[in-house]
Every structure is written in structure tokens, then in C-alpha cells.
Amino acid sequence: MYFKVVLILLGLKTAAKIILELVNQHNVQCHAGRLPRDLKGVMNKKTYQKAVNYTLTKSRFAVIKEIYDSIILLLFILLAGFAFLYDQVLINLGDTLFSRAAYLFILAFIFMLLEQPFAYYSKFVIEERFGFNKSGLKLWLLDKVKMILLAVIIGYPLVLLLIKLVDWTGQYWWLWGFAAVIIFQIIMQVVYPSFIMPLFNKFTELKNKRLRRRLLKLAQRVSFKTRNIYEMDGSKRSAHSNAFFAGWGRMRRIVLFDTLIKQLKAPQLEAVLAHEIGHYKKGHIWKRLLFSFVFTLIMFYIIELLLHSGAFYNQFSFTAHSGALVPVLVLFSIFSPLITFWLDPVSNYFSRKHEYEADRYTAKVMRRKKPLINALKILSRENLTNLTPARAYSVFYYSHPTLWEREKHLKGK
Questions:
Q1: 244, β-bridge pairs
Q2: Which of 61, 76, 284, 355 could disulfide-link 81, Cβ–Cβ 3.0 to 4.6 Å?
Q3: Residues with pLDDT less than 50, the chain
Q4: Has residue 329 been placed in a domain?
Q5: Half-sphere exposure of 18 (CA within 13 A, CB side)
């Protein structure tokens, strides 16, 4: 039963993603001749055509990659590749706690290698063609090495702990495992911005002192405690722009991409900051975190059920390893997206709702709507945003409302 269900879900997800891309391509092409009247002024004709070409190029590439990914996964399933690799690891490294945990990372490394031709093409062909890539091959490869090392250094001990919890706590291991992962996530909220992100990017105090005072004054006015305003050298990898805040309490920091600072004027940057603060003030961070906790708890309960299902092991050729946690973790992590994909519209609905709330908060704090609207228009132009996505496509993929939807909402139309 499990085998057939997985194959059906894989086929449905692949077909759905391809259809969504084709529907979106059709909708974009229908508007390619001229910008919709409600969006005039966002881009000139030349930039809009470039945005259309960028969207279509990425979409066609996504279709090819989806087919490739599905074929790779299908071959692993049909040829019992997951179980074969597990047996080989245990034969060559011995059946120990450390080798079982190592299997998970070896498999992840193999899948990562299989993805690299597409990652390279996306970065050095598509992003390069449209002027976004600023990274060289050396930096790109160095980033990959850093990510692999961090995954092993941080993730390996966590996997070892989860395996041992099965022995230490018996049938209640999944509750202890849930607690361990939650504590890990909370710790990473502090560790990631302070120690991991600086391994990839340089963070400096905002150089423009006048702008820094203005943004800190806004944060102070709305009682948002922050240590400082930081500028991140995002331009050494990409021309895309962003802003975010990270960390908790005294460790909280506001971060602006250097590309964003160059693209926006002071009132617009102030609006972007107010929007990010709005997410915090409206409790969106905690709501998302709570949702993550609930989802993680459900995930561990399902893993516990599968852990005692002999049929689940047998149908994927793990016959000699019934009761082993690592095979279940691997299969669950690979197969669960076949189900969670269909839940994306629900997640995106609440995410877009939060964006509207943060937009309203921004308009209230700024006492005017124009700075945020202008910022959104500039960011759409600079990032060659798809201004005319198909409705079904945006429902499945867009965590943020479209520019037209946000402007309409801000103006109360």
C-alpha cells in the first residue's frame, strides 16, 4: 500500500507543478504585449519585457528541473536505492550508531550533487543573463563547502541524539525528540544570525549615519528594541535585495541588504523597516513559530507510527532493519513533501494575511501609504518581479500578495 501511495502522490505532485508552471506561462504571455492599466508606472516597456522574459525563462527551467527531480526520486524508489545505500554504508562502516547517522548525510550529499548542474545553470546562466548574479565560481563553491560542513557539524550530533532517544526513552522517544528539536530551533534563532550568517556575509554598522539615526528613531518610537542597524554585503552574490531582522531580545538586529539601500530613498527604507517591525508587533513571528512547533510534533508522531510498521520497511526494501529510526527519517523527509505540497495554499493564505496586516501597520506608523507603495514598486522593478501571475500559481507559490493586491489593499479599494 505504501509503495503505491507514494508513486501516486509523486505523479500527482509532478503533474500539478508542471501544469501550474504552464498555466502561469500562458497568463504571463497573455499580458506580455502591454502592462495592465493598474500597474502602469511600475516599469517602462523595456523593463517589463525583460521581467516577462525572466519569468518565462525561470518557469521553463522549473518544468525541466521538476521532471528531472521526479525521475531521480522514481529511480531511487523503483531500484530500492535508499535501502541499497543503507546496506552498503553498514557493510563498509559497520552497523553502529555513528554509521547509521552517517548514512543520512551521505544520502543528502548524493542528492545535493545531483542537484548541482541545475543550481549552476540557474546561478551562472539564468541569473547571469538577467544581471542578477554577482558571485564568482570560487565563492559559489566555497559557499557549498561551508554549508556541507555546517550541516555535518550542527546536524550530525542532533541525529545521533534522536537515535539514542529511541533506546533511552522507549515508546515516548518521539516526545523527547520533539522537545530536543524545539530546543535546537530556539537556540539556532540566536546562533544563526550571530555566528553562522557572518560566515557567509559581512555585517557592518549602517554607514549612512543620518539614515541610521532615522531608522533607529523609528524603532524607538514604536518601542522596538534593537542593538543596531546593520548593512549586509548581499551585492557580492546577487543584485536582488531584501531586509530582515533576526535574533531575540538583546541580540536582535535589523539587517538591510546594501543593494536595498542603493535602490530606495530614506522614506521608503523607513517604510520597509516599519513593515518588518509590523510582523513582530502583530505577533506573526510567534504565530509562525507556534505553527512550526505543532507541525514538528505531528511529524514526530507520524514517524513513531511508521517506526513500528513492518510493511513500510518491507515495501522499500529495508527488510533487515525493522525498527531502525534512520531509514524512517530518510523516507519521511523525502516523501512528506509529496503531501505537504498540497497544504502550501493554506500556509500561503495565512502568510499573505500577515503581509496585509504588516502593510496596514506600516501605513499607520508612517501616517501615510505612499512610501511603502513606492518601495514595493521599486523593488518589483529592480527584481524583475512577475506582475501578472496566474491566480492558481500565486495561491500555491506566493507567500506574499502581488504588487497589485498590496497596493489595492493599502488604498482601501
A1: 255
A2: 76
A3: none
A4: no
A5: 14
| Residue 386 to residue 25: CA distance in whole angstroms | 10
In-domain check, residue 365: yes
303 close to 181: Cβ distance less than 8 angstroms: no
CB atoms under 10 Å from CB of 168, counted, come to 11
Neighbouring residues of 64: CB distance < 8 A, sequence distance ≥ 6: none
d(CA 40, CA 30): 16
**Phi, then psi, of 273 in degrees rounded to 5:** -65, -45
- 276 domain-assigned: yes
Residue 230 lies inside a defined structural domain of this protein: yes
What total number of domains does the chain contain?
1
- The CATH number of the domain where 231 resides is what? 3.30.2010.10
Q: Which residues are catalytic?
A: 276, 359
- Its domain, for residue 361, covers 201-286+346-410
- Radius of gyration for the chain, computed over Cα atoms and rounded to the nearest angstrom: 23
The pLDDT assigned to 28 comes to 95
- The answer to whether residues 254 and 219 touch, using CB atoms and an 8 Å cutoff, is yes
Q: What is the pLDDT of residue 250?
A: 60
Q: What is the pLDDT of residue 249?
A: 61
Q: What is the per-residue pLDDT for 382?
A: 94
